[in-house]
Each structure stands twice: as structure tokens, then as C-alpha cells.
Amino acid sequence: MTSRGSLISCGADEDHVLLHRLLDIGAEESIFLAEESLKDLLYLPVTEEILQSEQDVDECIEILGLGVALHIKQPAEFWLLLTDRYSDQKIVEENADRWISRVSKSVQVVEEDFFLALTEYFAISLMEELFCDECLMKGAPLYVEERIERLKSFIEPIIPRDASILEICCGSGMATQALMRLGHHPICMDSDLCDLCQAMKSDLMDPGSCFVLDARLLPRFFSSQSFQFVLGFMVGLIDEFNWPLWREILLLASCLAREGVLYTTYTQREAELIAKAFDEAGWTGEVIDNRDSKGIYDQWAYLGRRKGRRKG
């Protein structure tokens, strides 16, 4: 099929796997996704290789508007999921005629559920160390309880309890704990797979709601203003050399917020740089002095809102 070891089993006996439920297949059946990361879903390197080869397909499930699951017979029986939903290359769609006669059923899937199923798949594969030669991080991540409780008090009057939240640059999820203790269920992301993996292995982050991605690619997977709030805690450290990169990350991620953004920083200068960039981009906001005697975490913050949006 392919010389690369990139077809990752999602664990056939895991009956909680969302892909099984969305495709309406038994928990005992194996599901494979051709690509090994969200980023690869943009460029489809393995999918392209698969489509150039002949597959022994005896059945097909059409996922309307999103992709196709092929039942492969040899060398072993399994379902192979192909999707070009997030790619500019519509190569799966272009090859649909190859399997049209083998379609056994068509399923209608909400795109948000489809994305969560993919992220769960990648998260489980990550925890099983299928993307790593060796795991260098052992044990639970270090969480500072004082920071979590202080951040919880800071967030509570700002973010409504039922708000939909995207947390960017979440790291190992220390700040995420404050959101969870307030009853929020954020979607979280970071570019560091080791930090996220460590937190998920320790049952401190939900595999169904976190994923690995460069934040600059978020608009490729989410439509504008998909969340009420976009949050980021201790973004930076920002200096004159990396500020262009951070500016791009924060502004692109914030396109997904329809009400507001909240970013905490270590220094006042960092918060003011963010405020200036958002003011130039048409937001209205304020820099918040959140200093304490420890002087370590979340000392300053930028709270921004789309113009025309009221507080609370």
C-alpha cells in the first residue's frame, strides 16, 4: 500500500472512538487514517501515494461532503479513511468514481463532530507513542496550584460560564485546569506534541478536545468566528526578534473569536505590544495589570473585544 509506516490504528477495541460512531461501524473493526497529523491533512502526502496504487476494496462508506472510508481486504481487513476536506487538493473527490459502485451506505456527519473525531484519533495515536521513536518525557507535568487558583479568580468574571472557547498555545495544560475548574470545556491546541502527550497520558487533558498544530494554520480548519472567545496564557516571551511571529499567531488565531480574546503575559511591554497590534486590526481592548507578589505567571493581560461587542 505504502512504504511509509503512517497508517495508524485507532485501536479496534476502543468503543469510545468517535470515528466508529460517526461511521456506524462496530467497535471491533479497525479504522486507519491515511495521514498522521492535522498538518498532513492539508498536503495529503500519504493519501496521494495511496491513490496512485491499486487497493483491494470490497465496500465503501461515503461521508457526505467530507471523505470516504474504504474497506480493505488485503493484507488484512480494516477501514481506511481518506479526506481532502481541509486540503486545496481535492484528490479524494476527484477519485470518487473508483469506489462509487462499492458504496454500501452514505452517512451525514456534522463537520464539527468530524473534526473532533479526527483530533481524538490523532491524540490516541500520540499517547500510544506511534509518532515517536522514544518518549523523552515521563510522569505528570508540573502544575503550580497557586497559579491555577489565581488564574481561576482572574478568568471567572471575564468569561461567561457557557462560552465556547479555543485555547491556543496551551502547553501541558496548566492554565487549562483553571478553565476546567470553572466548568468550561475548551478546545485546546499547541504545536508541541510532547507537552500535550504528557498531559493526556496523565489524564489531565481530554484526548477528545486537544490537538497538535501550528496556530497559524487554525483558519484552515475552522471558519471565522467559530468560538466566542480565543484565549492564550503566558504567550511569549515576546521580544523584538520574535514579535512578528507572535503577532501573526495571535491575529490569525483571533479571527476565530466572535466576541473577544484574552492573552496573559509576563511583562507589561508584551501586553502593550499585543494591544497595539489588535487596535491596528480594528479591535477595542485594554491592558490589565494583574501583578502579584510572586511576579511569575500571568502578570499582565490584554482583553480585547470585537468592535460593537458589549462586555458581559
What's the CATH superfamily of the largest domain, by name? Vaccinia Virus protein VP39
Order of helices and strands: EHEHHEEEHEHHEHEHEEHEHEE
Instruction: Please give the CATH class of the largest domain.
Output: Alpha Beta
Instruction: Tell me what portion of residues adopts beta-strand conformation.
Output: 15-25%
Assign a percent range to the helix content: 25-40%
Average predicted local confidence, pLDDT: 91
- Give the strand tally: 13
Largest sheet: 7 strands, mixed
Spatial gap, N to C terminus: 54 Å
- Annotated CATH topology of the largest domain: Rossmann fold
Rg calc = 21 Å
Overall structural class, as computed from helix and strand content, comes to alpha/beta
The low-confidence runs, each spanning 5 or more residues with pLDDT under 50, are: 1-16
Architecture per CATH nomenclature, i.e. the level-2 architecture of the largest domain: 3-Layer(aba) Sandwich
- Our count of domains comes out at 2
Query: Number of helical runs?
Result: 10
Largest sheet: spatial strand order: 9-8-7-10-11-13-12
Q: Describe the global form.
A: elongated
Description:
By secondary structure, this protein is α/β, with parallel strands linked by helices. It folds into 2 domains: 8-127, no CATH class; 145-306, Rossmann fold. Helices cover 29% and strands 21% of the residues. The protein contains 10 helices and 13 strands. The strands form 2 sheets. A 7-stranded mixed sheet has the order 9-8-7-10-11-13-12. Helix 8 (193-201) links the parallel strand 8 (187-190) and strand 9. Helix 6 crosses helix 7 (174-181) and helix 9 (243-254) crosses helix 10 (268-280). The radius of gyration is 21 Å and the shape is elongated. The chain starts with 7 loop residues before the first strand and ends in a 6-residue tail after the last strand. Mean pLDDT is 91; it is low at 1-16.
